[in-house]
Amino acid sequence: MRNPGCQIDYMIQTKFKRLKYPKGLSGRFVLIHVNGVDDSVIDSDFFYKIIDMSELLDVEG
Do residues 12 and 32 make contact, with C-beta atoms less than 8 angstroms apart? Predict the structure, then answer.
């Protein structure tokens, strides 16, 4: 691999800082939630993936 990379597991977006991507790279935004997501968030297509954490933790299902 010519270019080193990283995986950001948790990032909080604020109005004070912007993440700059190197040329040729982009970010994929994933929303992880527990209490549900409004349909408008799902319909916006902003997130690459929306993960319901309660489904991941459901040991009975």
Answer: no
Q: How many domains does the chain have?
A: 1
Residue 5 placed within a domain: no
Residue 2 in any domain: the answer is no
pTM above 0.85, yes or no: no
CA distance linking residue 29 with residue 8, whole number of Å: 11
Query: pLDDT for 21-39, tens place per residue?
Result: 778 877 788 888 887 889 9
Nearest one of 55, 13, 49, 48 to 34, comparing CA atoms: 55
Q: Is residue 50 part of a domain?
A: yes
